[in-house]
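Task: encode each sequence below as structure tokens.

Item 1
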Amino acid sequence: MTAPLLKQYSPKGLDFYVMGKFLILAVITVAYIVFVWKTDSIPKPVTIYDSENRPLTDLDRECGDLEGQATYRLKHPGSKMFTEVHAKSYWNASGIIFEKGVTYNIQVFNPERATWKDASNEESPNKGWWPKKGMALWLSELGRFIGFLRAPKKDLFVLIGAIYGKCDDGRTCAAHFPIGNGTDFPAPADGEFCAYANDLPFTYGNNSGSITAQITRK
């Protein structure tokens, strides 16, 4: 008596079968990434506060899209503002305008009280994390390799800052920089300050928690 099912698969045939499944999964994943990248995620509302901790405004838009929006500037050295950064939000547009040539200090306010989660993993905005196995590792490495991880040289869930504004020649200027628990940032151009958890563009839906960033003009 023979074993009819087992004899149908040679090792070589099995290799082609596994490879075929891998290629199909890769094509589906890349197609989904491109689709989400093109359609883009709509950021969640974010509240910013003045130096007396009073709410100023709620925003639900992309970074640098300031048409019809109230904006805020830190006019004097030592002046500060606070903005809430949601792990689930794509941009966390703040309305706070950085000025070219001015250095700003960005700190996580009361980091020990912050909740900063990627799915069920509670992380640090300073160190972030990187998966060690499974589909999470595969998707993360793929995103880093093809440049879809938003800050490709940084680990997942590190707190990243960005400014979007106009260059001297009228083109859009953008700068992204790691914040971690705190950093000094000399603004290379005028632009709106935004911040986000470093992640793949299509995986923000399972993030949760927020931190409060304190921004001080030096």
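Item 2
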Amino acid sequence: MNHSTTSLPITLIVLMITLGGCAQLQVSNDSIDSNQLLIANLPSYLPGEFFVYDSGLAMIVTGSSKDTINWKYSNGAVSSGYQNFLVPQLSWEGDSSKGKRVTEASQNLLWPLTTGNSAQFGITQTSTDKANGFTKETKRKWECSVSGTERISVPAGNFDTYRVVCNRYTIDSNNWRGRHTYYFSPDIRHYVRLDKDYANRSSKREQIVRYGFNSNYLDEKDQGEAKKILFQALEKEEQGVSQNWSSSSGHVSVMLIPYQRYSNSIGQQCREYKSVFNVGGRVSHHNRKACRAADGTWQRTSNQAN
């Protein structure tokens, strides 16, 4: 792990904010040249990465390996599956039910994304009602294709995306049961919008509001080092002078940029700061505030997202 100090020009700070997805420029929803998009390789995720959608859904990675990923959701449910989100989760458990799925789908199905790519796979789902123990088995066929590219606007900003459409059918009668349409951004390597259509239910749409990294998922030693660098930046650095730090694994790095000092209503010394995380190539930023406690340590103010 290492750290360094950098004085950031205002233009660079503005550029990082723009790249983080918060630009307010209004762009029409239309097709774009796929050659303008970054290569859309299969995304990977590390523990602590989170995504929040305007539907109220929030999801955070609690564990990952080369092949699988574990998620925890804002409603308390958990799931485990491939890094490839196009394949439904292989196991899940919520308040009222739990279940498992078995599929022949490959872990890299459709990746890297290219317009015109298509694939299909079968999946067998076994779900259990936790209240009465009733078990039900369901078999479905999925057909997925990369139908094109599109520039879209969501609460987190404007993104150039690949549009991936996955239709679900019954195995026996081939009746259409539903469709998931993902809008995948190569910039943040995750989907920024998901449209859900059903045969017998109302449609739903989930649009990304924010995404980032929860540093509490770093190991204990790295957490201590990161906090030390943050305290040093808040205590000593001038406005706009950053402290840079990277984890012992090299998978996580952060740039901490302190801004103005001020006093809160109870007389504590406080500062605004920005943290810019790079987690395995996925960049996110957070605007935060911290105040110095009576023991001399700096504490983030309440009601702030991780």
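Check on item 2: Helices lie at 10-22, 220-236. The chain has two domains: 2-10+218-300, 31-213.
End of task.
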